[in-house]
Amino acid sequence: MMKNFKQTLLAVVLTSCCGVSAIALAQTAPDVPPRPQHPMGEPGKNPEQMKERFAKHQAELHDTLKITAAQEPAWKTFIQSVTPKAMPPREDFKELDKLTTPQRMEKMLEKMKEHQSALQDRLAATKTFYATLTPEQQKIFDESHRRLQHKMQGHMARQMHKRGDAPGMMDKP
């Protein structure tokens, strides 16, 4: 009987030690070296570069689609409606920290509604323009949009991974 008690006690002590060790290891943050500064600030954050890339992409798409004179007004309306507007100022994280969790969530929901509204506007403009395209032009447009979407998703995933926001990153010690 004493032998079983000692074995049980030993098992409990060992299990507890392993649990405490695991918790301590999980809470130890690895040293992350500071990110080197990019000479032009954050890559992709320069508004002028972004405008240039957007204009270049639109010019290439215009040429690839072989937009006709009859389609030109619809093209201009489409481009005007999908051109990114000025980026709103970033949230002040110190101010956000002062808010309660429900208040922060409400702010997030407001931002999501603004994004959804902008996306609905772009969708309406895209549908109107898309209807002016020939079936061949629609195929080209679809493929161009698909490539751009994949490229953007890859870029976003890389940025999230750099910041440590990638899925599964919170699970790692």
TrEMBL record:
Key words, A-Z: Signal
A Pfam short name: LTXXQ
Keyword Signal appears in the UniProt entry: yes
Region (Disordered): 29-48, 146-173
Membrane spanning residue stretches: none
Ranges of Basic residues composition bias in the record: 147-161
Matching InterPro entries: LTXXQ
Signal sequence annotation: 1-26
Protein name, UniProt field: Spy/CpxP family protein refolding chaperone
